[in-house]
Amino acid sequence: MDKNSNHETVCRPxxxxxxLHEAAGYKIKIIEVDSGSKLSLxxxxxxxxxxxxxxxxxxxxxxxEIIFLKPGESIDIxxxxxxxxxxxxxxxxxxxxxxxxxxxxxxxIVRFDDIYGRTNS
Length: 121
Hints:
With about 120 residues, the protein is mainly β.
């Protein structure tokens, strides 16, 4: 089943995301993270993610590792790995996120730490 989105942008406290394409087993998003903002420390039971930085600088927590990525650099986030995306810079951070898995809905997010009070563990 192919779901071509109308490219609706969803606002979050840290920025926004836009689903570019979704089909069985994968979803492609553009994620925009505001300067100084960060997503929750989280993991997913049903999907892995691949991130490519388009602009800005990303600070990524992947398990116990901290990695900084610049435009053109990428990282793989395996299924069930604790991870976080942050924008430590003054310019917006823009990434492409490719999700792969058998379930790709937002309720597959398990949050461990969230500055917006959205933890569920």
